[in-house]
Amino acid sequence: MPVKPLHFVVLAFLLVFLFVLLQLQVLGLVLDKLGLSPQGAASLLLATLIGSLINLPLFKIHGDPREAEPPPELPPWILAHVRPYTGETVIAVNVGGAVVPVAFSLYLLATQALPLGDVLLAIAVVAAVSYAFSQPIKGMGIGMPLLLAPLVTAFTALVLSPDNPAPLAYVSGTLGVLIGADLLHLKDIPRLATPIASIGGAGTFDGIFFTGILAVLLT
């Protein structure tokens, strides 16, 4: 599965940003709130960053090839292959943006005393906001504002679980954005005229990742 050059730029920025956060012990504070050891935090971060480069194909959706736009011409110094849209979109799942956050959310649900009702309500609130403010971008995928979801997630977690909001913030933030910005927009994929649509991938990867981290930091 090809990776867009912009995704590499985003990942490079994330890597530099996260190492700065580690030096400032901010990220350590966030992950400590979630009950992770330094080794566990490093493993989670590494799995997220490496996994963001891996898209696992799931199935294909057929659309109208007449709606396709010509792929952009990339500078010769960028070694990347842009696939043209031929009326078929491959639906994939991103390991770093979907599989890892879901797995860690399940871990938190299994190890933290989170009332099921609060979890479902918080996920529903974040998913509704993410769906309402995310939008299909023709030829690319689904885009959404970066800071809105963390603010809504943190507020919701503080209201529902004031004594221990961090685990609820991470679970509802990651799963809510994944559901609202990705899964609920699957019906819009055929008219996006894009060859690949990755659940939790470029476009919403930064939203899912930063929502979980920033929401915990804000609680």
Task: Please provide a written account of the structure.
By secondary structure, the protein is mainly alpha-helical. The protein has one domain. Helices cover 55% and strands 11% of the residues. It has 8 helices and 5 strands; from the N terminus they run αααββααββααβα. Strands 1-2-5 form a 3-stranded mixed β-sheet. It has a two-stranded antiparallel ribbon with strand order 3-4. Helix 3 runs antiparallel to helix 4, helix 4 runs antiparallel to helix 7 and helix 6 packs across helix 8. The longest helix is centred in the first third of the chain and has 19 residues.
Question: What structural keywords apply?
Answer:
mainly alpha; 3-stranded mixed sheet; 8 helices; 219 residues; globular
Summarize the structure.
This protein has eight helices and five strands. It has about 220 residues and is mainly alpha-helical.
Q: Report the structural category.
A: mainly alpha
Please report the total strand number as a whole number: 5
Question: For the largest beta sheet, what order do the strands appear in spatially?
Answer: 1-2-5
Q: Report the portion of residues in β strands.
A: 5-15%
Instruction: Tell me the count of domains.
Output: 1
Q: What kind of assembly state do the chains in view correspond to? A: single chain
Order of helices and strands: HHHEEHHEEHHEH
Shape, please? globular
What does the secondary structure layout of this molecule look like, with pairings?
Elements: H1 5-23, H2 26-33, H3 38-51, E1 55-62, E2 88-94, H4 95-111, H5 116-133, E3 135-137, E4 141-143, H6 148-160, H7 165-182, E5 196-199, H8 205-218
Parallel strand pairs: 2-5
Antiparallel strand pairs: 1-2, 3-4
